[in-house]
Amino acid sequence: xxxxxxxxxxxxxxxxxxxxxxxxLGHSVTVWNRTPSKLTALTHLGAQVATTPSELLNKSDLIxxxxxxxxxxxxxxxxxxxxxxxxAPGKLFLEMSTVRPRVHEQxxxxxxxxxxxxxxxxxxxxxxxxxxxxxxxxxGGLEADFKRTxxxxxxxxxxxxxxxxxxxxxxxxxxxxxxxxxxxxxxxEALSLCKPLQLSPERLMxxxxxxxxxxxxxxxxxxxxxxxxxxxPIAPVNFDVNxxxxxxxxxxxxxxxxxxxxxxxxxxxSLFDKVSRExxxxxxxxxxxxxxxxxxxxxxxxxxxxxKLFMGDVSGNSYxxxxxxxxxxxxxxxxxxxxxxHEHKKEPFTNLNPxxxxxxxxxxxxxxxxSAACLIYLARQYGGHQWYPSDPLQMAQITQxxxxxxxxxxxxxxxxxxxxxRDRWTLGxxxxxxxxxxxGLKAMxxxxxxxxxxxLNRPTLADIACFPYVESAPEGQTDLSAYPHILRWLERxxxxxxxxxxxxxxxxxx
Length: 510
Ligand SMILES: N[C@@H](CCC(=O)N[C@@H](CS)C(=O)NCC(=O)O)C(=O)O
Known about the structure:
Elements (H helix, E strand, L loop, with lengths): L4 E5 L3 H12 L3 E5 L7 H6 L2 E2 L3 H7 L2 E4 L4 H9 L13 E4 L5 H12 L4 E4 L2 E2 L2 H6 L2 E5 L3 H14 E6 L5 H27 L6 H8 L7 H4 L2 H8 L11 H18 L4 H18 L6 H8 L12 E5 L4 H13 L3 E5 L12 H4 L7 E4 L2 E4 L1 H12 L9 H31 L7 H21 L10 H11 L12 H11 L16
Parallel strand pairs: 1-2, 1-4, 2-3, 4-5, 5-6, 8-9, 10-11
Antiparallel strand pairs: 7-8, 10-12, 12-13
Helix pairs in contact: 8-12, 8-13, 8-14, 9-11, 12-13, 15-17, 15-20, 18-19, 18-20, 19-21
């Protein structure tokens, strides 16, 4: 194959590996990077340096660009010294960044107007395969351009696919990466199920490697995973956590524009986001399953700092959180607010909750207020799928009752109770509060006529959130004897193992 004058802009990990490969193949390679200091190592290998993108264009027949995001591509092509500033007849651009298809669809016409040709050509595979010419190339553009470039592409890739017009390669790349990116977490979860087996890292990876669910990319890294389990972090970093987050965001944006939900990708993103928030965004994404495995002790009793619950002893909203934490078995430090001294209406408490109300939850510095918000957080973070599953319909069915607990039960039953016990009439006289509370009770009674639990067919956050103010309704002079199904439901709830009782005995008004 003829040696070509090739320019490459964007000498990150992948760009540099490609330059190494091209030089090895004997091509004349000119490089440009926004940060010129990153070019030194490549010049030692024989690459020439261009000081501007337009200089790179002048020195090359084929220009490869591989950048981290859309804004960088825009600047490179449209910027002051960018590629689009001069005519480029006969040249060919190969845009290899992982971006959404529309980035290519928008850029291609501007490139064609300069007389050059344009293809999107993202690749599967990371640094190792790039250096060894073992990538998987995904091409979009004119078929004629693809055919004339194929000899070169074949020297970079173990397989090359032409997928259709400009943007098609990018679409396939997002789809392929989606499967890879969600596998990290499932691998970690699978490993954590094996923990009681106490296998050596070598044996564990050897057996796991035989699973038909093991993706190719992960299989290639099993050796590194063994090292990681022995305490050696994966290095050099091939694909970092923040790059994964960027990719999943692109997938989700693309899917949204097509009206398609991607629930698995969404869940994977939230887990990668969490890792990044912990300051580990630069780590190789392969560390994610390793850490999941290592730290997947029993979440309820691990040595993590205890949760803090700012609460009141007669507070029904605090009681909701106590119930859930009791059922999950979560340890927490109770911090009782001095309501007589109005501690909850002053700093420093109002810095935690500007509403000046309990409950407030502090999970190792993450502060949340509002009982419903705290219930959802605790259920999802520590309670598995039992209390608030991630299925959209089931979530909504439970949330209906969280809403009823926060409106009719709180502003009806609770305000009646507070008026009677404290002579504090928040939204009007007793009868008004009682009447509003009865709207909630009637809805519950109707549901419980045919169901044991308020939502789904098992106890969930719905039951936990509604319990406290229904149980204490007699304190607000609401007689529950007209609601036999509710009374039986209260008993059913109390019989759930570890269901905590109220801190202050019920005062019965009847
Ligand atoms: N929507 C809030 C309501 C919280 C609330 O009303 N808390 C009461 C105790 S149960 C409180 O702190 N009241 C103090 C006050 O209003 O002075 C939630 O669900 O957490």
